[in-house]
Amino acid sequence: MHIDIHDETILERFKQGEVVFKIIATDNGDKTRQVHIVNDKHTFSQRLWTHKYTPLLFAVDLYTRLAYLYDCLNREYNTPRTERFTFWWRKVHTKEWSKWFTVNDYHENILV
Predict the structure, then answer these.
(1) Whole-angstrom Cα distance, residue 112 to residue 110?
(2) What per-residue confidence (pLDDT) applies to 1?
(3) What is the pLDDT confidence band of residue 112, given thresholds at 50, 70 and 90?
(4) Pairing mode, if any, of strands 83-91 and 19-27?
(5) Count of beta carbons in the 10 Å neighbourhood of residue 8
(6) At 107, is the pLDDT very low, low, confident or very high (cuts 50, 70, 90)?
(7) Per-residue pLDDT averaged across 37-54, rounded?
(8) Is residue 86 included in any domain, yes or no?
(9) Alpha-carbon distance 102 to 85, whole Å?
(10) Angstrom distance (rounded) from CA 42 to CA 44
(11) Would you say residue 108 lies in a domain?
(12) Residues of the domain holding 72
């Protein structure tokens, strides 16, 4: 999978509850749409704990876990999504958004 991390310092800040995020999808023609509005550590935790238990979900890094729980990964084998999903972050109680990471389209590789 291709995840580009734009700011590696945000992961710890998110774990501490200092930042919130939103997701913007961009198609191949650069048309954008907002996928999820403001999410915080609490809404992420709720989504994780109410999801059907999948052991691999707890074995992957947090970027992949977020991408999976917020439906940014492929839905069928070898069928890439037609959009890129960019996670934007901002400090709690502020208004300025910055790029956190992007989930790009990809083809699965069985022999990693």
Answers:
(1) 6
(2) 59
(3) low
(4) antiparallel
(5) 9
(6) confident
(7) 91
(8) yes
(9) 6
(10) 5
(11) no
(12) 3-103
